[in-house]
């Protein structure tokens, strides 16, 4: 490999930039002092204990968890038929439809946030959990759609034809052959969508109200007022949760397949 | 009335005519191969019989019944796809049982028939495996068992052996033929491998660019090709431009490269420009005084059981294939005498070179 050294250097720099903030946050959360210090002057679980005395974070965590599960599920339910139509169909406007579903990735999130705020007011859902979940579903739909589309395009059409030739009707073919083959894609997309929803901030800031404040919004407003290591310990717990989730996904599905679309051999 | 009949079957995709008025009769219990180069319309023909493509024109009759209004899932045909198309999330036994489940066959009966089908393809010991943990040859057999277990009237095979390596392919050719005989099922197979078609079939159908070029028993298509295309596609051929000057029931006379030679009897073409075809295995290396022409060896290839010589001759280059008799063959640069018997020559109409 000719440009091996340069490529390696790039990877190293990239990894450093990705990992450094995490290392800092995790480090800071173990500080025994009352301020953000890195490296920490000692090891203490003081700020982890403090989470237990901060019900707003625990509640925010529950809201984010519930929101993630509901909106990711909603997105998956929409994405599967959409992906089947887009991936299989030969109708006019296929491309346009795909672009529409993917557009939340393109539109600046601040713009989306303002638009959702207005929209929810108009339809009378402003400040509700339902409204929040709907907006999250829209934002995370592209992630599920992309993975389901990938798994559909990787599906051998002949397997469905084989089932058909053996006497299976349309619905049976879908239930017994197509769906099982794309389940990994759906699950992968669901997890990616869940994580995206779980730490979504920009749009949420616009549309939460005090009873639906998510964890990221909580953290954000906490930082705006004080800077104690509590944010670091909450973040560390969140990171741990995400890492565990990733490990579980990797066990059952393969992370490389989730993120790159390549199968585990 | 034949068991399967194709009448003027045509399929057009826009301006492309993939299959052009195919008419073919397949007898019950026979094994018929559709053979031809890539893109000649073999798969399209098979897909129309299967019911996955709708013919633009023409009819398909199975056992006297018109198939056009019958959807694929009700045709009851056994199909083995080139990719095998196994259900990867089901075990071998579940794969095979699928068609019986769809037919609402009872549990005990299902188990019995799955076992019998797996036994037929020698896979009983792998019933609980998943396809991903199997070799290509094993997967191929699962696909076959899955197609046969429903006791189809007709078995359709699309290049069933093309994903296997050469050695396994030869084994599976015999195996597939045995299974087909034991199951007693009429079979239509698509292949672009001429030796496979010759070895396995009762009848070979040679296709070219959507057209049926010749349909015959394997020995006949090989020995009596109706056209240069068929002759070149099946095995190797030496082809030379020649002029037919006389022909009757006892023999014929041809002029090649200014030399007059004897040709076969029974040539029905009118005198004039023709193509002379001579198979490499019909050319003999003979003593110079008995030779019809002389040649100089340009290349010599050893295949184990035989040699292939390429020689420069007055006619042009000639391929000569020789059985390995244990003695060293003529070497590159050697002058050799070449001869053949007049009845081994085939005289065919000239064809324009095709792109
Ligand atoms: N869905 C389609 N749309 C347009 N053209 C098609 C379609 N399917 C096949 N064709 C064309 O029809 C012709 C015949 O295709 P077919 O797949 O039957 O060939 P084949 O003989 O099976 O070739 P191969 O040996 O490569 O599998 C080809 O020229 C192909 O490009
Ligand atoms: Mg084909």
UniProtKB/TrEMBL annotation, chain B:
On whether Transmembrane is a keyword of this UniProt record, the answer is no
* Superkingdom of origin organism: Bacteria
Write out the GO biological process terms: quaternary ammonium group transport
- Using the record, list the residue span of the signal peptide; answer none if the entry has no such feature: none
GO cellular component annotations of the record: ATP-binding cassette (ABC) transporter complex
| Cited Pfam families | ABC_tran, TOBE_2
What keywords tag this UniProt record? ATP-binding, Nucleotide-binding, Transport
Q: Which residues form the ABC transporter domain?
A: 4-234
Q: What is this protein called?
A: Spermidine/putrescine ABC transporter ATPase
Q: What is the protein's species of origin?
A: Paenirhodobacter enshiensis
